[in-house]
Amino acid sequence: MSDYLEGLNPPQRAAVEQMEGPMIIIAGAGSGKTRVLTYRIAHLLKNGVDSFQILSLTFTNKAAREMKERIGKVVGQSEAKNLWMGTFHSVFARILRSEADKLGYPSSFTIYDSQDTVRLMNSIIKEMGLSKDQYKSKAILSRISQFKNNLITVKAYRNNPELIEADTMAMRPQMGAVYKEYVDRCFKAGAMDFDDLLLRTNELLVRFPDVLSKYQDRFRYVMVDEYQDTNHSQYLIVRALADRFQNICVVGDDSQSIYAFRGANINNILNFQKDYPDVKTFKLEQNYRSTSNIVEAANSLIEKNKTRLDKTIFTSNDAGGKIKIMRTLSDGEEGRWVANSIFENAMNLQKTYDDFAILYRTNAQSRAMEDALRKKGIKYKIFGGLSFYQRKEIKDLLAYLRVLINPNDEEALKRIINYPARGIGETTMDKLSVAANHYNKSLFEIISDLESTDIKIQGPTKTKLNNFATLIQSLQITAQGNNAFQVADEVVKRVGLIKDLQVDGTPEAVNRVENVQELLNGMKDFIEERKEQDLDSSLTAFLEDVALASTFDNKDEDDTPMVSLMTIHLAKGLEFPYVYIVGMEETLFPSAMSVNTRSELEEERRLFYVALTRAETQCYLSFAHTRYRWGKLIDCEPSRFLEEIDERYIEHLAPQRNKVVANRFVDSGLFDDDDIPRDKIRFRKPVTRSVRNQETPEKKTPFKQPQNLRKVTPQLAQQMNTSKPAQKLAAGNKVSHAKFGVGQVISVEGAGVNVKAEVKFENVGTKKILLQFAKLNILES
DNA sequence: CGGTGTCCGATTTTT
DNA sequence: TCGGACACCG
């Protein structure tokens, strides 16, 4: 019956059995945190708490799903399915839908993803006539994100001279106006961005005490996982909800806080004890995951951080192998070494590729690894990067669906209004925008009732717009009473979304058609799954799921063992027997952006700590002396983090470089035991080299990517030149052109349809002209 | 209006 | 080095 308590160690068990009151579980890496969380919920349920009364917030959808499943195994699936469990964003999106009218939003509001917000910001900056160099949309958006996560509304911003001053100093005096316009436009479009899901929840709870009261009463037990990564906005929500019953349990590890860059506030966990004076604290300090060498190495590293909670991770696991450090000359060699090492380990130790992971600081580093793995014939999968749902063809279809549900969704509408091409161009769109602004209506409202405006749009264009409106309206009718899959299928057919692609026939087009097909299949699965669980399976629900899905939520259909490649951020919460952490170099890891302040550097160190503690059996670190970055070959120095690990736990695989004549490489001094102050060396900027890499470029073999993974740029088959050369044109020829007049050919380049000539015209100067189009008459050769 | 070529910026991490 | 945004021509 309560046998689930048996396998727990004393602190774990104590945490599980503590049901009431505020509590914090400080859970070191690999200390069985998920287990404790799972069992604690099961324990609550077994002790008479209603599953509807438990709210459990996790960091990823995947974590939520897994936990739900595990709880189901203890208490039964039917009981588990009523739990409110999910990410902050998905749980509160759900609540916001049911309360949307209070905030003036439609319950079918759209969730803008980052691509949508960038596009919107671009148009705002353009429309406001601001310089796009001073107002970089990404920078503006991240500033706005900061505001929102700290509950600084437009109004609050305007009343805050300090912020205004700061933005003025940063050459962005219009920041407030941009912020206002952005918020207004989202609101008009019935759209929320990621931050709005939290901000609007706060608004809801503050402005409507009865709503707050309702959810306080409902969620008598609140649990938050990865508490160290919550931002201020999330903090306030949790606090408000738990205020009545004070049954709040947060779990986290300050040493694994790695999301400060997007607003996570490590003080939320550091100060939890101050927020709830009668808090009960539980520390899970025994690591069950890794060898003691790994645990001790990680400990010796994280000790270098000043701001941390007091805890000591220990393990009774075997010592295992030491952390192995490999030094290579180039990033290419690093890749080859990793691939070889994985190959040999898999062979010698009888491991499958699932047991291996390659972790890196930046996505760009994956390329060298991919090349090497591919060459070695090792299967791999990349997490992160462009997700399935971000692909053009998928976004196009989703945009149609979004418009059906919420025609005011401006970004979706702009995306599809002329795709497939309907002859509705920029000029028309500009006119519509102006009208929308003038009449304070959405674009779609204007389009569907052109007559009531004095908009000057010509007959043919008018017809096109009317046709578009009719198409959408009739699809909207289809959308009623049909499920998500049926609607999408209908859209594909009626709109002719994949027609061009099917005709096209290039491998790339075929792939796109397959992707669309896969989305349709995905929708079928979604509907079935949701129905089984008695959950909302509407189109709205599907779109929400997609908007909040992360790369991890892709379902893996291919189960051949593959090496996992991902950024360290993505690796949090995962574990692998063999872990390779690559690119251990200054300015890469720690990132050049993070070495200026202590807190940023400490976050990088925590990131490294997270990376190390992913490894169960063996951990490898590698760095290269040269690396291609920004298309240039640059010199690199070993990361300072390498020498922050206690030597006792380290083994160098390559001869150290101090005594050898390292001719072209300036000695970084890393392995020297000299007395030169480290800073002097470390902060030296890498030198850009002009020397080209001597290695012969590897020939890329066509490679079929596994499903759902980041797409490798399709290698378009070189277009064969079947058409006859347009003209026999050579340098020196005298030619005439209808528009440019007479000139002399300077050079001819390119092949087939791409033949172009550089011609120096007497009157208009030098032009490059594609012979396929331009009619050049040869006057003299 | 639509397709193609050119130029510019990106590379810190993402729910 | 590569992809996206923009300009320009037909």
From TrEMBL:
**EC number(s) recorded for this UniProt protein:** 5.6.2.4
- Pinpoint the UvrD-like helicase C-terminal domain residues: 292-573
Xref: InterPro entries: DExx_box_DNA_helicase_dom_sf, DNA_helicase_UvrD-like_C, DNA_helicase_UvrD/REP, P-loop_NTPase, UvrD-like_ATP-bd
All copies of the UvrD-like helicase ATP-binding domain together span 6-291
UniProt catalytic activity: ATP + H2O = ADP + phosphate + H(+); Couples ATP hydrolysis with the unwinding of duplex DNA by translocating in the 3'-5' direction
Highest taxon in the source lineage? Bacteria
What GO molecular functions are on record for this protein?
A: exonuclease activity
Q: Which UniProt keywords apply?
A: ATP-binding, DNA-binding, Exonuclease, Helicase, Hydrolase, Isomerase, Nuclease, Nucleotide-binding
Q: Summarize where ATP binds, as residue positions.
A: A27, G28, A29, G30, S31, G32, K33, T34
Instruction: Return the broad EC class.
Output: isomerase
The family classification in the record reads:
Belongs to the helicase family. UvrD subfamily.
Name the chain's protein. DNA 3'-5' helicase
